[in-house]
Amino acid sequence: MTALTHEPTPLTDLPPVTAWLSDMDGVLVKENRALPGANEFLAALRGKNIPFLVLTNNSVFTNRDLSARLANSGLDIPEDNIWTSANATAAFLHQQSPGSTAYVIGEAGLTTAIHSAGYVMTEIDPEFVVLGEVRSYDFHALTHAIRLIEGGAKFIATNPDVSGPSDEGTLPACGAIAAMITAATGQKPYFVGKPNPVMIRAGLNKIGAHSESAAMVGDRMDTDVRAGVEAGLRTHLVLSGSTAREDINNFPFRPFGIHEGIGDLIELVEAAH
Question: Sorted alphabetically, which PANTHER family does this protein's record hold (predicted)?
Answer without folding.
Answer: 4-NITROPHENYLPHOSPHATASE-RELATED, HALOACID DEHALOGENASE-LIKE HYDROLASE DOMAIN-CONTAINING PROTEIN 2
